[in-house]
Request: fold
Amino acid sequence: MTAIRKALVIGGGVAGPAAAMALQKAGIESVVYEAYPNPADDVGVFLTVATNGIDALRTIGSDEGVVAAGFPTPKITLRNSGGKNLGGTNTGAALPDGTTSQTVRRSDLYRIIQDEAISRGIQIERGKRLVDAKETADGVRAVFADGTEATGDVLIGADGIDSTVRNLIDPSAPPPKYTGLINLGGYTSGVPVDTESCSYSMMFGKRAFFGYAVLPSREVWWYASLPRPVEPKKGELEAIDGLEWQRRLVGFFQHDTGPAVQLIKATRDPEALRATPTRSVPNLRTWHSNRMVIIGDAAHAPTPTSGQGASLSIEDGVVLAKCLRDLADPRQAFGTFEKLRRPRVEAIIKVANSINNNKAPGPIGSAIRDAFTPIIMKLTANSSFMMRQYDYHIDWEEAVRA
Ligand SMILES: Cc1cc2nc3c(=O)[nH]c(=O)nc-3n(C[C@H](O)[C@H](O)[C@H](O)COP(=O)(O)OP(=O)(O)OC[C@H]3O[C@@H](n4cnc5c(N)ncnc54)[C@H](O)[C@@H]3O)c2cc1C
Reply:
């Protein structure tokens, strides 16, 4: 039985509010501290919450809003630049009530998950950027950029890929690694595509990777991963305006078969197009100290290719709450949490990284990739590894043992 009464949760993205709701279910009070004063903007455009993420939200009774805001996307088809079908896969079997993986705007996901936490009486303090934290004999003291402080029994770093808590736990932790790709996406209506509603179509183009999902209304949400070997300097991508991105994207996909160019040209609000570098967090030496732990992207950011970052972050929050509920000593709870989670997240990151390497391999690499992908897809799509990603279920009632 836990001795932990109060947790300080740093970060009000996906992992933070999910963890706070799970902690509440476990009888532990928490306050969420979010650096930004206003709700999240639309950076990253949209993402998929896979069935395992929906299932984890369901464990804490907060899946309904996300399902209502998104649309089902249970299937992915892969093509080459000439339009040839390279194979397909499912994003997991449907949950018992028929719910499948959902694609949702990133800003909607943030808003829904935060509102749900607030509606349960969880305090989310905005404009609180953590700058330091000190462990004491029986707790932890957090220091914020505005000079205020807060104390609790434990501190949970859900502060994303550029985590401050990660460096407080281990000052030698490696920084996030740039993967050689930049990402951007947009929304288009009125362009007919030969893809069924509620599914993804993805293409290894001659020069870059393109993917889109089709809504029941036939609106299309698309994204592109562009090769860029050298990591962009701070501010470099932001300095390029949306119309210039639109022009460059057309150049990237003009020699490919498929609707990419039409979708890009007809993008609603092209001025809003913005690119972000794709980064991941390498395997860290440790995720915790005596009183502090990191979860979500702070501990193990996969690249967007995995389609699992948000789902793994939600799972983390639920599993951590169980560990803190059942194990009296926080260090033991954190150690057990890390042991339970590491093999799963690191396996998913490894597979996503190998797919990233295939997104921009050059002409010879592309030919090899296109020749072998159908065989690999046959062997791996819907394989037991793929299904284990999506079928993961957290049994809330089952006790955690150290
Ligand atoms: C382009 C793109 C596409 C993606 N596609 C998918 C997808 O299809 N499926 C999927 O599952 N995932 C996807 N992801 C990944 C997913 O968005 C992340 O894995 C997920 O948001 C991680 O949640 P988190 O709560 O750990 O971190 P975040 O969502 O980044 O939240 C961290 C929060 O902490 C706050 N914060 C940071 N520092 C501090 C501080 N010092 N003090 C206080 N607060 C702080 C931040 O402001 C932020 O609100 C994608 C990501 C990108 C960039």
